[in-house]
Amino acid sequence: MFVDEHELIVRAGKGGDGRSSFRHESQMPKGGPDGGDGGDGGDVVFVASHHMNGLGHLQNIREIRAKDGGKGEGSDCAGKNAPDTIVEVPVGTVIHELYTEAPPADAAPAEDGPGTSVQPDALAYESADETDEADDADEAEADDADVEAEADAEDDPDAIHAPDSAFTAEGAHGEEVAEPEVEHKSRVLADMNQPGMRVIIARGGNGGFGNRHFATATNQAPRRANPGRPGQSVRLRLEVKLIADVGLVGLPNAGKSTLLARCSRARPKIAAYPFTTLSPYLGIVDMQGESRFVMADIPGLIEGASHGKGLGHQFLRHVERTRVLLHLIDVSMDEVDQLVRNYEVIEGELAAFSATLAAKPRVIVANKADIPGAEEKAAEVSRRIGKPVDLISGVTGKGVKELLWKLFHIVKADAQSPA
């Protein structure tokens, strides 16, 4: 099964805790603090791979968690840095972050080349005196709160502690209180459009400082060490958009799969009934030597596809990256009026789905030229819509070579034009 969308949560590793210890050796009665720092938590890194074409390897995974950093040890021994967790995705994957409120300004992922290590940003720590004072204040507040809680419990030993929802109208009747649905917003974190591209999606937490960092002239035996910082946690939606030069669109059973099989080594399912193609297919069209381009076939569109009817609307994103659209029309069955209507339906669905698709260059092709009367129908359709219509036969190969060279020149010109 072709999987091109998936949601999951990624959690980077927590930094290891710093160690509070002192040097104990012969002839060293006051060795001083020697607690080591904790190791950094592992990052979660996404890598674009051209060996994959879908997200099927992730469809049963709901959470990816990187390893935590090692704890610091005595004798100034730092904890071990956790390795990065690598997640491979197909080239063309768009990574969206899902959030319920405004995302942090510094939450953008970092890109790095293959084999490059990324060091998390250094964390700013307070001075030892400041943190000691803050810890003392926090401990005093916690003690006061415990005393108040014990006093309340003594005054009313039969008190029942229950959540606020238990005292609502629903909770009073023993009914389950439904949790409100959370509406997630999204923003694009990365577009994995190049093979080997690496993006750090979640950074691991920094390791905590050992007590040797807190030694001062007035506090030569500090007994405190910093805990490791937590790693980032991100909810993601992965969306695959296949990267192709030419996208095949048209009604079901228009001959798109037959044409793809004729001009490439792709072998999509071909049959004499609609909706044979249930998932996108890619084929490499090899012209001569270095002259080649990629063609994508998606399931056929029907009227109302932009509103969720049929299958094709689920896969239109795969032709958003194409340089040119090849609109295939089957001239073997219907009369000219219906053929023009079919053309208008597809064009309307493309425009309703995306303004990007509506603005792409078109090559309109009448298929099944081996059927009697096909040439006359193609000429009349061209006259009605006011655009040239090429005539081919995906079965016999008539006109296919000329069509492919035409597509190749359009693709080449578009690639050389400034963005």
Distinctive features:
419 residues, alpha/beta, Spo0b-associated Gtp-binding Protein, Chain: A, Rossmann fold, 2 domains, five-stranded mixed β-sheet, 7 helices, 15 strands, 22% helix
Structure report:
This protein is of the alpha/beta class and 419 residues long. The chain has two domains: 1-21 and 31-125 and 180-240, Spo0b-associated Gtp-binding Protein, Chain: A (Distorted Sandwich); 246-416, P-loop containing nucleotide triphosphate hydrolases (Rossmann fold), CATH 3.40.50.300. Helix content is 22%, strand content 21%. The protein has seven helices and 15 strands. The strands form three sheets. A six-stranded mixed beta sheet has the order 11-12-10-13-14-15, with helices on both faces. A hairpin with a 2-residue loop joins β11 and β12 (291-297). α4 (336-353) packs across α6 (374-385). It is elongated, with a radius of gyration of 32 Å. The chain starts with a strand and ends with a helix.
Kindly identify the CATH topology of the largest domain. Spo0b-associated Gtp-binding Protein, Chain: A
CATH class of the largest domain: Mainly Beta
Summarize the biggest pleated sheet: 6 strands, mixed
Residue share in helix: 10-25%
Q: CA-to-CA gap between the ends?
A: 35 Å
Structural class: alpha/beta
Instruction: Using the 3D structure, state the CATH architecture of the largest domain.
Output: Distorted Sandwich
Rg over CA atoms, rounded to whole Å, is 32 Å
Q: Strand order, main sheet: write it out.
A: 11-12-10-13-14-15
